[in-house]
Amino acid sequence: MVEEEEFEFAEDLEAILHLTPEVQLAIEQVFPSQDPLDRADFNAVEYINTLFPTEQSLANIDDVVNKIRLKIRRLDDNIRTVVRGQTNVGQDGRQALEEAQIAIQQLFGKIKDIKDKAEKSEQMVKEITRDIKQLDHAKRHLTTSITTLNHLHMLAGGVDSLEAMTRKRQYGEVANLLQGVVNVLEHFHKYMGIPQIRQLSERVKAAQSELGTQILADFEEAFPSQGTKRPGGPSNVLRDACLVANVLDPRIKQEIIKKFIRQHLSEYLVLFQENQDVAWLDKIDRRYAWIKRQLLDYEEKYGRMFPEEWCMTERIAVEFCHITRVELAKVMRTRAKEIEVKLLLFAIQRTTNFEGLLAKRFTGCTLTDTPGQKRPESPLDPTNPFLEDEPGEDVGTDKDEDLAKTPSEPRKPKAPDNPFHGIVSKCFEPHLYVYIESQDKNLGELIDRFVADFRAQGPPKAGTGEGGAVLPSCADLFVYYKKCMVQCSQLSTGEPMIALTTIFQKFLREYAWKILSGNLPKSSSNSGGLTISSLLKEKEGSEAAKFTVDELCLICSILSTAEYCLATTQQLEEKLKEKVDKVLVERINLTGEMDTFSTVISNSIQLLVQDLDAACDPALTAMSKMPWQSVEHVGDQSPYVTSIIMHIKQNVPIIRDNLASTRKYFTQFCIKFTNSFIPKFINHLFRCKPISMVGAEQCLWLNWRASFKCLS
């Protein structure tokens, strides 16, 4: 009965003491234990099975029960001690709470006392500093009032003085005074609602307007647009008037400059009118000589009259350039049929020289539209005429002396860009078609001369050092191209450059057709040469006709020239793209011309291959017709082997020596010959039927010996 009651009590206790997982986890963290009895998922059956795993272990059941009972008694004692210890906890807590409340009340009272004392101190400080603040405000207002009154006095006195000095034309004093009055007036912008201040401001504006009108009248009187000749020297009054104009409205300064320059250049418009003989291009030097004299005259007479920052000398030169460009354009439109190439180049040369002189003398600060920056030029191969420095050469010169420079000479530093480039010479651009047509004609004559020279001098001779060398006409052509390109780029970087590029393309193709492809050896009864079709035919029973040594040298020379033209044409394209305007770069394309030179190279190599290949054909035919079945012993010599070795030893060294400067094309020749000869050799080898065992050994030995000889 007692046991049943204890069991029911244990079940009730378990239901009451069922803890949540969070609480159980917190208890395990605070009181860690390894005892199975402390686990939340304790199972009595498993625990008993752990204590008594076997029947034999039941012999110790009494000891185990005693240990558990002892543990229960200890737990009861601990629980009893804890419960008794908590008897007075509630009373002690209430007492501690009351003591804390009393302490808080005392602290609050002290804080209130401190706050009251702080407010009293602040009020005391305000009373002490009130008078000081009033004195500070009074001092600041008094200082502002005194300053404003001083400014007002200065403004009033300055306006009176300004009006008086204006009437007396005392511009030297007015220049300094006017700037001061304007600066003082700026302090009164917020007082413009006061009638007196507004009146003073209006008087200042009226004085400025009167000064501007008066100064313009003085300059008109000193430098009349028409009538009397201008005085021989500067005026101190006008010099001071220029200082006043710096302070006035900028339009006054611009009007003075405009009238003076117009009056200074009025004589130029009369002397070089469109109907005058000196207005034509052949006397263009007189225009530039006239402005040089005028600038010297200005520096001597009026250099000190205008302020230095006005840059009057440069402004006169720039206005002269604008007028000259317009006048030259009108003259050339009227007399367009009289323009010749030499005359046009002469005028352009003198004009670009003058623009260069302006760039050395002036900075270009007065120009409103400065030319675009030139693109830097990339370094190129020094053996090419397009890769050398391009100094400022004369447009009308016939020879390019700078091309004689050796590649080892150091390059000169690039000259700074000319801000005056095109300021006058731009007027020649619409007439550059004359120059383009002239270059078309000159290049046509140059190609014809190259053809005639080649026919007269003949192909390069073997043993003279000329074989395999680049034809001299090739270098001459590209040097002339460079000269034309530099000239045209100095004249224009627009459409004329595109037109010149078209001409370059035309004559590059003509050079490839007439000079290179047109002079490749062809078969004839006298020369013993072979055509490509005849090279493909077998010649049985006789030696095949071959190119002579001179013809081989000529083919190698044409190949080297085509390679030089290919590389130089690529550099020419890059240079043209650098010279032309950015918007026109896409229209420059010399790919077709480079492909043409590549075709010449390929044809030259093919001719060399087919010549050697055809020379070996009779020997291969003889090999296939030998009675290999009747060979009785292995020999050390055979006519067809000797013939093949002889032809290879004759041709290959000549081609190798003549293509020494272009080793990659000699390698291509060897590869193409091998690819052509080996299949043909194998084909003839299969024709050697019937063949005995001894004949096969003989054929193997001879072929191995021929291969060894060729390699050696």
From TrEMBL:
Keywords from UniProt, A to Z, are: Coiled coil
Gene Ontology annotations of biological process type:
retrograde transport, endosome to Golgi
Gene Ontology CC terms: cytosol; GARP complex
For this protein, the record's InterPro entries field holds: Vps53, Vps53_N
- For the Vps53 N-terminal domain, which residue ranges apply? 41-454
Per the UniProt record, one Pfam family is Vps53_N
Return the Basic and acidic residues bias intervals.
Answer: 396-415
**Which residues fall in a coiled-coil region?**
97-138
Give me the ranges of the annotated region Disordered: 368-418
- State the PANTHER family in the record: VACUOLAR PROTEIN SORTING-ASSOCIATED PROTEIN 53 HOMOLOG (PTHR12820:SF0), VACUOLAR SORTING PROTEIN 53 (PTHR12820)
* Listed name of the protein: Vps53 N-terminal domain-containing protein
The species is Amphiprion ocellaris (Clown anemonefish)
What's the encoding gene here? VPS53
